Every structure is written in C-alpha cells, then in structure tokens.
Amino acid sequence: MNNKVYVVKCPSYDQVEEKIGELLEMMGGIEQFAAPDENIALKANLLVAADPEKAITTHPTLAAAIGRLTKDQGANAFIIDSPSGAYQYSERTLKRVYRACGMSNAAQEAGITLNFDTTYQPVSFPEGKLVQHFDILTPLVKADKVFNLCKLKTHTLMTMTGAVKNIFGAIPGRAKPGFHANLQDPPLFAQMLLDLANCVAPRLSIMDAVVGMEGDGPSNGQPRHIGLLLASENPLALDVVAGEIIGLPSERNPILVEAKKRGALPYRLEDIDLIGIDPSELCIPNFILPATFAAHTSWLLQIFSPLIKKLFSLEPRIVKDDCIACGDCREICPMQAITIQEDKSNAGKKYAVINYDECIHCYCCHEVCPQDAIELRKSFLYRIFNTLNV
Questions:
Q1: Are residues 274 and 339 in the same domain?
Q2: Burial level of 147, CB count in 10 A (0-12/13-18/19+)?
Q3: Would you say residue 136 lies in a domain?
Q4: Fewer C-beta within 10 Å: the chain N or C terminus?
C-alpha cells in the first residue's frame, strides 16, 4: 500500500463536486477505483441523526459527488453506515438518520441507493494482532469495493476520528459498546481499530475536511472551517496528514502510536508523499483538541493503575436542566451504568443518572447526547496535571 496523500483546497461545499473531480484526476481518475457493474459501498460517517451543518457527519455533497462519479463509471454505488450504538440498527433508524444527515437527498440527486440491509456476518481475520474475528455489516462484506468517506473531527476517547476510526461503523450498532467495555484504554481500542481497518480494507479513503469539528467531538464539539478535501489509498496515511492539520503530534495519536509498534508505516509526515499542497499550508492555527487529550497522553498518568487513573480523568456529568431523558446515553453505555430517574424535587421531570462506580470513562454517553446535556468535568488533580503538562 502506498503512502501517497492527495489534497485539494475546497473553501465551501458548493465546490465539492468540482474539487472531488480534481482530486480523483490527480489519482488517475475514478476508473482506477471502480469498474463497470461493481458494487461500491460508500461508507460514510453517520454517527447520529444530525443536520450536516453541525459537522458531525460526512457532508452529503461528498457522498453525492462520489456517487455520481461511480455511477458514470458504470458501477453501482450505495451509501452505508451503522450509526451509534445508542440506536437500534433497524430500517426505521436508518431512514431517520439518512433523512436528517441529508443522505436521502444525496442518493436521489446522484441516482444511487441507500442501504437498508441490517444483517451482519461473522468474518474471520487471522491476520489481526489483537482481534481475529469481527461481525461486519453484510453489504460491506459482499461489496466489490469499499470507499471510506470519513470526516475530520476530534474524539474524546481517541483524540481524533479520521479514516481508520471511521471503519468502526462497519460493526452493527448495538455491538459497538462491547468493544468499549472490553477495550477500555485508548491503546487497546486503537489496536482493534487497526485490525478492523485492515480487515475491511477500503479501496479508497476520502476525507471531508471542508468543515471539521474541534473541541469535544465527535458530536458535541464545534464546527471549524478547514477548507480541504483529502484522499489516499491508505487510511493510515490519510490520518497522518489529518493529524498534521489539527496539530496532533503523531506520538500522541493512539492509532499512529500503535501502528508504529507494529512496524506499520507511515507514522510521521516525513513518511508521506504529499501531493497537491505544500506541507506548510496544512496546519490550522489554534485548533482546539478535546479536553481529554492531556489525560490520555500524559506520560506520567500512564504509570498509574486504572483505579488511580480515574482520579485524573474527566468525568461525564449530566446537566439536569438540559436532559430530556431520551435514553440514548443509557442505551449506548457499555457498562449499563446509566439509568433514567424521576426528579423528586420536580414532579414529572426525569433525567439520566450515572453510576460512577461502574463508569469506565469511554465518553460514549457524551458522544451521543442530542441535547449536549452531558459535560466533561475536570477534577482538581486533572487541572493540576494539565497545567504542568506531564
């Protein structure tokens, strides 16, 4: 797999179709990736049912542009993803998510289809370093090619979500929390993601970085204009460049650190054959990384036992006045540590309650809350260590 990453400037989503054409021409044209009569899965990031302008999901203009190009090539393209584990993976859920994220209109405009097959298949992957078996969505298993249409965002557990992390959506919704329960530390979770990405092996990865997300992503951060589209045959290479854009050093990116331990390259920008832009134009100034970044990457905190680490972690806290008791956090919690209770001081008012004895600080609840009613609260010790930068 080569380490070439192609980048074009794309100031707005109105220009995506034109710029995607330029990007793929730099790579030799869509014919390098799709052939007539092939079934092409467009694996988008559709984490939750959210307006695309919130920068939580892959923008529909990107899916439409790639869909049109593959159709013009004579291939059969379909949009697919398994949303957050808070949702039951059903046709009803998919309809709601596709509609909210603009994918229903994108598919109609491009003349392609939406996936409603919610079955999955066991896939053996003996090459996996940590995980040798995955349950993967059936249409992805059967597709001739997978195009990985990822979004550049921050992530409270993994610091960044990009090309490799986007493949986690190949796992059916309610199966995702199990991985969080069993692989609680970012390095272990990163190892699983690397195995999964190698198992699914996307033929092409394209990153929506026109508007990304900074802060406490992947759903409760803030949109940040970046103005770029990126593509590579190698999702790991794409993530190296994405980290450079947001100012995330390779040695503090869990996925790249674990890849380096395996002897997998690329690891740093020096390993990348960057085409279409000068490296000096990549970095976005003052990009805000998630509040969890210091805790997850502090060398001193890594020597503590998991029990002690809890004292230094950010803690998810329910904002009672904002909580609507929808239950999404309860459904996604891998430890079943969240319940919905009635407020005794306010008859009829319900809100979520977290059992902190069971909480593993995976931040899935924060990730899916549609009301942004779960904040990440810093402990006194966390503030001290963050100030000292250790």
A1: no
A2: buried
A3: yes
A4: C
Same domain, 318 and 232: no
pLDDT of 29 over the 90 cut: yes
pLDDT tens digits along 259-287: 999 999 899 999 999 999 999 999 999 99
> Which residue has tokens 């609507």?
324
The two three-digit tokens of residue 199, written as one number: 């198992």
| CATH code at position 332 | 3.30.70.3270
CATH code at position 233? 3.40.50
How many domains does the chain fold into? 2
107 lies in the same domain as 234: yes
| 25-59 core/surface letters (b: 16 or more CB in 10 A; e: else) | eebeebeebbeeebebbbbbbbbbbbebebbbbbb
Q: Which of 148, 149, 122 is nearest to 136 (CA)?
A: 122
Ramachandran area for residue 139 (φ above 0: left; ψ -120 to 50: alpha; else beta): alpha
291 domain-assigned: no
pLDDT in tens, 54-107: 999 999 999 999 999 999 999 999 999 999 877 789 999 999 999 999 999 999
| DSSP labels, 311-337 | GGS-EEEE-TTT-----HHHHH-TT--
Residue 321 maps to a domain? yes
> Same domain for 189 and 268?
yes
List the domain range (segments joined by +) for residue 342. 305-388
Phi-psi region of 144 (alpha: psi -120 to 50; beta: other; left: phi over 0): alpha
Mean of per-residue pLDDT scores for the chain: 92
The residues pairing with 146 across neighbouring beta strands, listed in sequence order, are 41
Largest CA distance in the chain: 65
Residues 237, 309, single domain; the answer is no
The tokens of 210 are what?
């026109």
Whether pLDDT at 187 is above 80: yes
**263 domain-assigned:** yes
